[in-house]
Each structure stands twice: as structure tokens, then as C-alpha cells.
Amino acid sequence: xxxxxxxxxxxxxxxxxxxxxxxxxxxxxxxxxxxxxxxxxxxxxxxxxxxxxxxxxxxxxxxxxxxxxxxxxxxxxxxxxxxxxxxxxxxxxxxxxxxxxxxxxxxxxxxxxxxxxxxxxxxxxxxxxxxxxxxxxxxxxxxxxxxxxxxxxxxxxxxxxxxxxxxxxxxxxxxxxxxxxxxxxxxxxxxxxxxxxxxxxxxxxxxxxxxxxxxxxxxxxxxxxxxxxxxxxxxxxxxxxxxxxxxxxxxxxxxxxxxxxxxxxxxxxxxxxxxxxxxxxxxxxxxxxxxxxxxxxxxxxxxxxxxxxxxxxxxxxxxxxxx
Length: 323
Fold this sequence. Notes:
Helix content is 46%, strand content 18%. By secondary structure, the chain is of the alpha+beta class. The chain folds into 3 domains: 14-68, no CATH class; 71-202, no CATH class; 213-322, VSR Endonuclease (Endonuclease, Chain A, 3-Layer(aba) Sandwich).
């Protein structure tokens, strides 16, 4: 059998190539990409008329429907924001799993390039610095790397969410403290770099990586009442304790209704408390209702267990009774 002549090998038809592209891009495609596949403007208009494509943004289309995953929404925001646009800020943090997805979509474009402005729920930032070291692709989306994302995130969020985000980034091994500090050095003069640098200098990286909103609420109570922050998610005697004060020998657990209020979990929690108690640890448990409706009481009980008179002094008997 003779060797096949390359001239006899035909590329897949346009429809097949478009389907493959849409499959890789979460059901989203740009007009520029459609033209690169060989579709003319007339053919694009025909597909729109037949609802084979649906316009979802300026020069961006979805495959016959407007229902997109988060990845599809983020990619559409990047494709619709012009040349050099990248996913950034809160949206980049959400793509990396460092923050929850929100309807607000954020991208960054080169300040000197063609720029499509903010519109609707899309916020377009501009930057004179988008070096390749700060960029990568994740899930086919051009996005800022975690260390650069932390700088952008610091400019639009408060300190505690920033602490939580970088703790999670380190816990997931998305970046290291050295990489975060290197990013700060690369962006002198940026507010986000200064804020991130301050957090890195003052915060024990990874010390408050939390797993759910119950724990976030408990940390807020500690801050409100001047209680020193504990270590979070600490391996202890074969278990993982929610909060630990090692010097004072105190463990605090926060109990959610779903994960703790069944017989098996109830028995497991008590067995763990017994083993920790036998090893010399003091264990305190607080429920969602207590954390939300009896905040001062929770703080008082933790203060008592820690033996911190200063924390308790700020809680009068009246305030504790009302909480």
C-alpha cells in the first residue's frame, strides 16, 4: 500500500471544527475565532438567525443557548474585552478556587491596547504591567497566576478575605510565600502590592485556612472581642481540630447542622472529645445558632477557657445575658 499524499487529506468540515472548539471553550466562541475557521460574516449572521449561535457579548457567542457554566462566563468576559484581556481580581480568585464565584465578572486589559470598557456586570481594569510571568491558562482561560491574583484581589477586598485567599492558595500549593513576595517586588507602587506585603509581614501564612463559613464566623467573634487568633484545621491525635490554642491547651470545634447533627457524627464527636480530654486538652463546642445569636456568650466561654481576664473584662454580665 502506497503512502498517502498529504494533498488528499482534507481537514474536517467547518461545523466539526467549530464543535471541537466549542467543546474546548465551555460553549463559547469569538467572532475572530469564527472567521479563523473560515466562516464569513454572512454565514455567522445565518447561524445567529437559526439560533445555532447566540450572542452573549460584544463579538462573543454561545452554542445555541445562553446558559453557561462559570468557566463559560469567565471566558466570554475575556474574549469580549479585546486583545490582551485576562481574567483577574475576584473572578480569577474564583477560577483558582480561592473565592466564591459572583455575578460580577472582572478582567484586566493592557492600558496601551484596544480597550472595551466596563458594561453591565463586567468590570474592566487596566494595567501597564501584564508580564508573562504573571499570566497562564487554566481551563482554556487566560488568567492571572495566583500570586498576581492576590495583588489584584487585595485592591478590591478587605484584609480578612485576602488572608483567607492566600492561606487557601498556599494550602492548595498554587503558590508559595516566596512567589507572593516576588510578585509584591515586581509591582512597586501598587496599592494591592503594599497591602499584600503588609499581610505577609504580619500574618502567619496558612495559619487561618478555614473550611467553611462556621469557622469564618468564629474568627470574626475572636477579632471582635480581642481574643488571640487560634491555629485552624490542626492535625491532632489523628483528628483535625477546627481551632487550637496550643499553649493554653484549648480546642474549639464549630458544629454545622448537616455535618454534625446525625447519630454517627454525634457519637464520633463525643469519642473525639473524650480522647482529646484524656490527653489533657480542653474542648469546647459551639453550634451555628450560638455563633450567630450568642456571640458575646461564645466569646466569654472561650475567654474563660483561655484564662484571659482582659477578654472577659470587655463582656459585662448584661451584654452576655442579652447575647
